[in-house]
């Protein structure tokens, strides 16, 4: 999400999500407004649609830098967690299993949702 004007529409003055965050595939509600904080942090997530095998060594990834951070996993309205991969679990939509939309760090218990992997709705 590099378009600054669009990004400004999604973030409150206190750097929180101004709008509902929904799955871009099934429209399921993931987060309500003012429950996540904007952060810039580079992280590689696997592509939602892999062209090759599902072998972890061959996963195709994409780098993101704009994330919503959620401190407590119970803040989510709807989210699913993948199996553990190193110190991470990937976050997916619990209704349609699409993702990953973000990741969870086991050691810090923080959750990160990539802004471009979800839909924002007023």
Automatic annotation (TrEMBL):
Keyword Signal: no
Membrane-crossing residue ranges in chain numbering: none
Pfam families associated with the record: Mss4
InterPro entries hit by this protein: Mss4, Mss4-like_sf, Mss4/transl-control_tumour
UniProt KW keywords: Guanine-nucleotide releasing factor, Protein transport, Transport
A cellular component annotation (GO) from this entry: membrane
UniProt cross-references to Gene3D superfamilies, sorted A to Z: Metal Binding Protein, Guanine Nucleotide Exchange Factor, Chain A (2.170.150.10)
GO molecular function per UniProt: guanyl-nucleotide exchange factor activity; zinc ion binding
GO biological process, one term: post-Golgi vesicle-mediated transport
Protein name per Swiss-Prot or TrEMBL: CLUMA_CG014199, isoform A
Protein species of origin: Clunio marinus
